[in-house]
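seq:
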Amino acid sequence: MANITITGKVLRILPLREVEVGDETKKVVDLIIADEFDYKRVSCWDEKAELVIHGDIKAGDVLKIENARVPDAARAGSGKRVNAGKYTRITGISANVTPLNRAPSQRLTVLAVARPEHGQVCIAGINENGEWIRPQGVYEHDVFCAVDGGVKFKNLCISKIYVDAWRGRRPRKEDRFFVYADSVERELSEGEKRDFLERNVDGSIDEVFKRGRSLGLIKPCILHVYEEPAGKGKGYEQYIRFNFKDSSGRTYRRWSCRCDEFYKTWNELKKKHRWTYGLRMLRYLRKNDTYLAVGLTYTDYGIDRLEYGAYPMIVGVHIMPQM
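struct:
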C-alpha cells in the first residue's frame, strides 16, 4: 500500500456499513472528498468512522487527511479509493476550495426519479451528447439540497452532475458511479419538454432492450393501470402496475412502476376520488400523450428465463397535453 495526503471538501457522506474482517465487525463510512480537479472516495474505519457518525466530520468541511492508504487494488484500477485508519490524521482546515471546478461535468436531463428502495434512489436521464446515464449509488439525502431545501434531480429538468466509471458487479451500459450533483439548473419549458421527449422516444421495447441498452423511452397505448398490495416486508403498502401496448403492437402486462412523482399524483387522485381513481387515471393517461421511461434491474434471486435477462420496469412517467 502507498500512503498519501489529501486536501479537499467533503461533498457527500455515504451511509454507514459494517465489514467483516476476520472475526471482527468493523464500522466503515465513505466520504466523497474533492479539490478543484478530482475526487477521492475515502473509507473511514473504526474510530475515524465514529468522527463522522458523531458529527465531528460533516458535508461541507474542508479536510487535510494525512497518511491515508491507497490499496494495491485501487492503484491498479482508478486509484480513487483510499483508506483512513488508525494511523491516519484528519484535520479540519480553513481553506477556500471550489470542488470539481476544473473537473469534467455533464448536463443530465432527468427522465427518472424512482421511489427510494433500501435508501437508494434510481436516477436516469440523457446527457448533452444524447447518451443515457444511470448514476449509481444515489441515496435519499443526495437528492435534496442542504442549503435551500430544493432538489438536485427532478423530472424533465437539467442537473449538472459529476460521474465516473462504475466498477460494481454486472455493470450495465449506462451505469456510472455518482460523484456529486449541483442543484437543478433549470426546468425545461413546455415546448422543450415535448421536443425532448419526441426526439428521444424509441420505436419499441425490443428496440431498447435487444440492442444492448437497459434504459429507454417509449410512447405506448395504456391499456390498464392499477395498484396491488406490495406484500409483506416490501417497504411500501402498494405497487402500481401498467398494462400497455408499444408502437410495434406488442402487449406487455404487469410492469411495475417506480416513478416517485407518479405515485404522488396517483395518491392525490385516490384521496379525492376514493371509488373511481383508477378509472380517472386511465382516462387521464389516454387523453394525453404519455411517455414511459423504462429500465432493466438485475435480480439476485436465481430466477431464470427472464425475457431480457433482468426485470423490466417503468422508472419515469411523463404526461404531456395532446397538441
